[in-house]
């Protein structure tokens, strides 16, 4: 018999959606710059809930809740994570900068920083910008960012799925912000 019995939902000690909406979260915001897939957006909401993200900002062609297709991957996280919509990503970045956020585009650029090398800290306020599935983060958004972070890759492809990449970035950022990793 296995010594690793799966825990039941009630054993996980999760807070309710209502409790999550009023809880204090890390200063970590996800900005979706023209992400088109409802499945990707739903997955990003779900990961954002798991990683204590304070809000998701949807921009441009990114759809907003409610959406049955988004719900298939979000599984209710679109209700637990606050969100806001902006027609133009640059307007969202202006508001975030006014709130004191460091704007970080996840993109392969000249002089980008490797994800593992960026020193996320508890005292920081970070807006993580994720781009379109085909074209990435718009150049105008990259230009308006404080810095760019990229994930080192070792295969023949030059990009990864936006929801997978978001999960990797949020995991690294959250572990460093919460002091669980240096």
Brief digest:
The chain is of the alpha/beta class and 182 residues long. It contains 7 helices and 7 strands; from the N terminus they run αβαβααβαβββαβα. Helices cover 34% and strands 17% of the residues.
How would you describe what is shown here?
This protein is an alpha/beta fold. Helices cover 34% and strands 17% of the residues. The chain contains seven helices and seven strands; from the N terminus they run H-E-H-E-H-H-E-H-E-E-E-H-E-H. A seven-stranded parallel beta sheet has the order 3-2-1-6-4-7-5, with helices on both faces. Strand 1 (28-33), helix 2 and strand 2 (55-59) form a beta-alpha-beta unit. Helix 2 (38-50) runs parallel beside helix 3. The chain is globular and about 50 Å long. It starts with 16 loop residues before the first helix and ends in a 5-residue tail after the last helix. 34% of the residues are buried. The mean pLDDT is 94.
What's the story with the biggest beta sheet?
7 strands, parallel
Give me the count of strands. Answer: 7
Q: Structural class of the secondary structure composition? A: alpha/beta
Q: Give the strand content.
A: 15-25%
Termini separation comes to 37 Å
Secondary structure tally, helices: 7
Which strand order do you get reading across the main beta sheet?
3-2-1-6-4-7-5
Global Rg: 16 Å
Give the uncertain stretches in residue-range form.
none
Helix content: 25-40%
Q: What's the pLDDT, averaged over the residues?
A: 94
Given the C-alpha coordinates, what overall shape results? globular
What are the secondary-structure elements, in order, as H or E?
HEHEHHEHEEEHEH
